[in-house]
Structures are given as C-alpha cells and as structure tokens.
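quick one
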Amino acid sequence: MLKLRNPVSSTLNTTTFNINQKKPGFSLRHSKLVRESCLIFHSIDDCNSFHAPYVILSLMYLLITITVITITYLLLDKLAQTSKFQLFGQYFTKVNTQELVVALTYDDGPNPPHTDQLIDLLNQLGVKATFFTIGQNIEVHTQTVQNLIANKHEIGNHSYSHQKLIWKTPAFIRSEINKTDELIRKLGVKQEILFRAPYGYKRFTLPYILNKMQKKNILWNLDPKDYHESNPEVIANYVINNVTPGAIILLHDGGGERGATIAATEIIVRTLQAQGYKFQTVSQMLK
Ligand SMILES: [Zn+2]
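structure w/ zinc ion:
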C-alpha cells in the first residue's frame, strides 16, 4: 500500500490505494518516454492509463536497470583493457622465471633509419630483441625487416594498420592479423608469429579471435613511456629501477624520431648486463 499526495487536488488530502489497483484517484499526463518506460515493465492496459505509482516505479526500474548495465559494462571494459586480464586465449605480460633474463620489445616499425640504427647498436651489444611490426610499414620498408631477420631478431605482428581493435568486426580484426602474418611469412619467417594488440587494447572480440587462431598476445610489464619522453636517462632509469626476471620491456622503434629510445637502449643493456641479466627474444624467453 502506498500513501501519495494528490497532485491534482488543491487540498492536502492523501489518497490511499494499492499499487496493483487500476483505478487510483488520479493520473498523470504522460510523455512518450514515460509511456515507453512503462511498457518495459507493465502491460499495455496498465500503461494506457497512467497512474502515478506505475510511472514512478517504472522510471525507478528503468534507472536501476540502466545503472546496473552501465556499471557492469564499465567494469568488464576496464578489465578487458588492463594488462592483468584477458577473457580468452593465451597472453603474457611477463614470463615466470627466476633466471636473470628479460626481453626488449620494439613496436610500430619498421621505421628507417631508426630501426636500422637500433639493429647496429643491438649487434654491438650482442643482444637479440623482438620487433612488433605494422603490416603497412612492412610493405613500405621491406628492406628494414629483411635487415632485422638477417640479424636474427624476432618479428612479431602488431596488426596491419595499427587501429584499436575494439568496436571492429571479426572480419576486420582477422584481416588485420592475417595480412600482416602473410607479409612476415613472405619474408621467410617460419617460426610462430607472436601478436601484440595495438595500444594493448583487447576487450572481447580480439582475444576470442586470437584464441581461435591459437595466437599468443604479448603485452608487457614495463612501459617507460618512451613515446612521451625525450630524456634517455629517464626512460632507462624507469626500466632499470623496476626490472625483474622475465620482464617484457615495451619500447618503440616506430612513430617518429627515436633517438632517445636508441640512447636509452644502450644504457638499459649495459646496466642490466653488468647486473648479470641476459637479453632474449620473447619466444626464447617463453620456451
Ligand atoms: Zn603500437
């Protein structure tokens, strides 16, 4: 039973009635939105003659439903974007090991001359790294990828056009992965091709497709944000201060001028080698 004050009446008398009754003492003029809200929870008969309790309860139900759906979606979405969770398939942010090994990974290339300068430096340091390449860039800078392969670095797939693979159709996502795999295979790579989601965004469809393709998604646990930072020491110090065995370090050879990343690489490698660390490709570290 509800006690409601009659809004139509100028008196302050209260009207008492059961909310299931269809003949309460007053009705409200209804807008289209209110009527549609009512129809979600009540029959047409109930909604054709609007009564205050129905309207209030319907709006409350609608508000609660929208709030619950929104909160659930935001929580799932947050989880799907975090590096700590993926709904389907295999993904790695680091490798569980006690050995002093880490993997340097470089994204968004090939990007000459920076990628080639990096190859020269890594050769001098005796280090192999993993390059998550973008298909479009492979088509334009094929020679640089051949240079990477000739120097025994690992070539990973970082999609064809580096778009966030969320809100995309399964067909689009599959083509982004397959086109880049084909470009890498054409250059003679025979081993398993690891994938890295652009921006690390994955949500639900991408992991589902990667799982179907039996493809590993390689994320990272150390991001010194070299794309924002121009001081090599800041980039290097972040890695050196936070490194642990099995770390996957995110750096970039693509996306513009990469002098700071190259200089930071030298500091990272020399410092960690002095601490006993060895550098491996991601596939080597996963074995
Ligand atoms: Zn990227």
